[in-house]
Design a protein that fits this description.
CATH topology of the largest domain: Rossmann fold
CATH class of the largest domain: Alpha Beta
Oligomer: single chain
Strand content: 15-25%
Shape: globular
CATH superfamily of the largest domain: HAD superfamily/HAD-like
Strand order of the largest sheet: 5-4-3-2-1-12-13-14
């Protein structure tokens, strides 16, 4: 590997994190070496801000993060959002109306307050955060759509995630972006034009890094815009078939520390010269 990069952008779940949601010491050291070599290290995730603390505890370094699939650019050192691109209440209401009409079993939740709080319909099936005081039910869909949200979540029972995402995308075309990052049938909806690529582009511009100088790592469909935007897109071996097909290169799986293995071959991070 002879190429140097100005930014290392990596997804978290299924990419940087192992299946047990930990970060290996090898990965910690590889990211630190990249940062010490002058590269901007950016965490680019579908996760909300409130889910990042444990990751930072593993990493030991407060790298900037692009959260909620690009809707929030987060400065962990100051614990504040640098840039937010949310769904407006009117758009939220229209999207939910369209989806409820097309799929009557649709149930919704919204990430609000820059992703620090989640509101959900009473019968929205929570899979995580069941004991988190920042997560609470609302009395009606009208209340749910009364605030700006960095992300809308929709479930409609057990569904094929690719097929359901395609259906949702058709329903919200022109209003919002739809994607997914899990196998559970959860679809994630952002404001029109908001993707991981858009959020990362904002962060890189702030740091003076061109898209051509970015290496990005991912595993799921919500990573596709980022991998296409970056100068070099790398899929981990366990990635979704669409990601494997779109990537410029494939590295080892998340459980094999694929991101670390790739970074260790970069001359700047390894300390070698090209």
């Amino acid at each position: 590997m002879e190429r140097n990069f100005g930014c290392v952008a990596t997804d978290l779940d299924g990419t940087l994190l192992r299946s047990d949601l930990t970060v290996s010491e090898r990965t910690v050291q590889a990211l630190r070496a990249a940062s010490a070599a002058g590269m901007l290290v950016a965490l680019v995730t579908g996760r909300p801000v409130r889910w990042l603390r444990r990751v930072y505890d593993h990493l030991g370094v407060l790298y900037p993060a692009v959260c909620a699939n690009g809707a929030v650019v987060y400065d962990p050192e100051a614990d504040r959002a640098l840039h937010v691109n949310p769904l407006a209440p009117a758009v939220l209401a229209e999207v939910c109306q369209r989806l409820r009409a097309a799929v009557p079993t649709s149930r919704f939740a919204v990430e609000i307050e820059d992703g620090r709080v989640l509101w959900h319909e009473v019968d929205y099936p929570l899979r995580w955060d069941t004991d988190d005081p920042a997560v609470r039910p609302v009395t009606s869909l009208a209340e749910l759509t009364s605030v700006t949200a960095v992300k809308l979540l929709v479930r409609a029972g057990e569904r094929d995630p690719d097929e359901f995402t395609s259906l949702v995308a058709q329903c919200v075309a022109g209003l919002a972006e739809a994607t997914h990052s899990s196998a559970s049938g959860l679809v994630e909806i952002s404001a029109a034009g908001v993707t991981k690529a858009a959020g990362l582009a904002w962060l890189c511009e702030r740091h003076g890094v061109a898209a051509a100088d970015v290496v990005a790592f991912g595993d799921m469909p919500n990573d596709l815009p980022m991998l296409a935007w970056a100068g070099h897109g790398v899929a981990v071996a366990n990635a979704h078939p669409a990601v494997l097909a779109a990537a410029d290169e494939v590295t080892g799986s998340n459980d094999e520390d694929g991101v670390a293995g790739y970074l260790e071959r970069l001359p700047a991070a390894s300390g070698s010269t090209s």
